[in-house]
Write a sequence for this structure.
């Protein structure tokens, strides 16, 4: 992952948050790496993209300041460790962007390591980073991690959990979460408002908190609509091909049994479903079936329809987690542990119908 060497002093467009290169990337509709190349290696960026990025910089009021470090300073730069649950999941790479942005603004560096959704490997990585004497740890986990947090605490290293809530009795660390129940509610309510009455939640059914919480949000929402049904479909995986196979199954259903609105556990599943249905030619997207993803994945796909998503606030999660960690590092005696819950946002595109209900 690219690491930009700039930080900002410009005020944020909303609130007091600094405007970072991730904001510029979003405005220009390019990757954060492309913005970093524009700022540091402009010869690597096309003229077309340079114009888009420059326009975004001017619109946002982004101001770049160069870090000035001596060799001695480089050797003493504080380092943060970030343990990534799944590097193929856009949420965690966008969290990394937010962490990197705050680190850049505070003359710090971040090391990202991949746990492969394996609790044993995660524990090994926690111990490795503690032995490296990092200044702090950020952990994206799919499991409860009290033992890893206890190990870091014993080593005198503050830690923040991201996207996983340990049992409520664990109150000795900060946590940053996205509101997955709200994501399920937003997606279900949008489909119902656009006229769908037979919904399906297609996800890799597991013990992951995010999957369970989205399902809970969907079910709570549909309690208000007695004429709307819900079917839970196990995709067997989280990738494009898993969604594609489900799409083929749906194509072979009778009109009476097939859903007219689908909420997908990942955007890749959603894209696979759409591709299978469009290729089959019998079912129209979105006229016959509307499809919503639940991540906001910016990774390029070849979806034949632009995907409506309930977008996760990944970059903001990274920023918030890093801010919490910084406060604990610099204000250990006065720091108060807290849990922050960030809201997702709906981004309407071509895979869902326009609203017909209020």
């Amino acid at each position: 992952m690219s690491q930009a060497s700039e930080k900002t002093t410009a005020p944020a467009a909303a609130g007091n948050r600094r405007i970072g290169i991730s904001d510029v990337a979003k405005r220009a509709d390019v990757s954060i790496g492309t913005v970093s190349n524009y700022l540091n290696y402009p010869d690597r960026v096309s003229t077309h993209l340079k114009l888009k990025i420059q326009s975004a910089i001017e619109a946002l009021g982004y101001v770049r300041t160069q870090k000035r470090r001596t060799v001695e300073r480089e050797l003493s730069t504080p380092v943060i460790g970030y343990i990534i649950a799944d590097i193929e999941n856009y949420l965690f790479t966008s969290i990394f962007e937010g962490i990197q942005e705050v680190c850049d603004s505070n003359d710090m560096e971040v090391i990202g390591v991949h746990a492969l959704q394996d609790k044993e490997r995660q524990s090994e990585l926690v111990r490795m980073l503690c032995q490296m004497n990092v200044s702090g740890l950020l952990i994206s986990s799919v499991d409860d991690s009290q033992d890893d947090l206890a190990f870091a605490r014993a080593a005198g290293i503050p830690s923040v959990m991201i996207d996983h809530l340990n049992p409520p009795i664990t109150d000795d660390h900060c946590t940053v979460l996205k509101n997955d129940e709200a994501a399920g509610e937003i997606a279900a309510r949008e489909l119902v408002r656009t006229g769908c009455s037979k919904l399906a939640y297609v996800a890799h059914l597991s013990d992951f908190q995010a999957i369970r919480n989205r399902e809970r949000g969907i079910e709570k929402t549909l309690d208000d609509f007695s004429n709307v049904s819900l079917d839970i479909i196990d995709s067997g995986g989280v990738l494009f091909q898993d969604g594609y196979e489900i799409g083929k199954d749906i194509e072979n259903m009778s009109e009476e049994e097939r859903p007219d609105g689908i909420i997908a556990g990942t955007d890749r599943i959603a894209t696979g479903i759409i591709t299978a249905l469009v290729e089959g030619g019998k079912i129209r997207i979105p006229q016959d079936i509307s499809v919503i993803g639940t991540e906001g994945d910016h990774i390029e796909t070849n979806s034949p329809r632009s995907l409506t998503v309930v977008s996760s606030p990944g970059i903001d999660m990274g920023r918030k987690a890093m801010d919490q960690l910084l406060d604990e590092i610099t204000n250990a005696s006065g720091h108060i542990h807290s849990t922050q819950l960030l809201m997702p946002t709906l981004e309407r595109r071509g895979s869902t119908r326009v609203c017909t209900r209020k």
About this structure: The chain is about 40% helix and 20% strand.
